[in-house]
Amino acid sequence: MTIQEEILNEIKKYQKIVIHRHQRPDPDALGSQVGLAELLRNSFPEKEIRQVGKDVEGLRYLTEMQEIDDAFYQGALVIVTDTANAPRIDDKRYSLGDQVIKIDHHPNDEPYGDLLWVDTKASSCSEMIAEFALLFPDELKMNSDSARLLYAGIVGDTGRFLYPSTTGRTLELAAELRKYSFDASKLNREIEQITMKVAKLSGCVYQTIEVDEKGAGKVILSQALLGKYGIVDSETAAVVSLPGVIDEVLAWAIFVEQPEGYYRVRLRSKGPVINEIAKRHHGGGHPLASGANAKDLQEVAEIYMEIQEACTNYTR
């Protein structure tokens, strides 16, 4: 029996299902989480299915979360999508359920749950959910709501099909999702659209980026700078990919100072593997896209030195 068959069998057993994803969600986290929820609601209308976690203001065009009390978890199946390790799961009540299923496309360095389906070759967790639906067409009934969310997740995590994670299968699944009735052009605009204040911050990123001779890039966004533009942490996600369009940049980090004083680190690369750097600094992720944390500017400097070393080794 395949892991997908095992997961479907568990879904069939439970009347109540709660779906979680990671903190500070991106389109793939929300797309896979609520795309799966809508898929299951359409397939099993008799079941009680909930999506939980904190809402993100800039992503409300995709979907919104639901509130449930602790009692709902009694005898419920919990599914966690797009989340590499347990500490990153949004809403710690996930452990109150009867059992936990992990569906993810990040490296499985920190396994959790009773059933695990991890596919690091998938472009996104939304791609995995779309594949899941197509494996069982007689039992899992896709509709426009689920297709829209899964398509958004794939578009988000592939950078509109530009990233190396995009495969032929990714495009096939996206094509299948596009057969459903939703406004893909509008959705793409919503994903790409930024506010004026983020546009101004983008200019600051280009003006202040530091790049060495090997292509290692660094941008520090201080609390004072964020305050100047009226930006909150979640909005900085829109500028993370910007250094990648610069021809001299090979790998880079955006260091975002938090109100508590530490730095949230977003790492990206065009070639050098950077997830090992992330793992050494309380983080992890994909070889070319990861996240980490730095307790102070000294650790910021250490991470940048490691990026420089990775770029040097890559270009030898």
UniProtKB/TrEMBL annotation:
Residue span, DHHA1 domain: 230-311
Start and end residues of each DDH domain: 16-154
Pfam families registered for this protein in UniProt: DHH, DHHA1
Coiled coil: none
Protein name per Swiss-Prot or TrEMBL: Oligoribonuclease
Organism ancestry: Bacteria, Bacillati, Bacillota, Bacilli, Lactobacillales
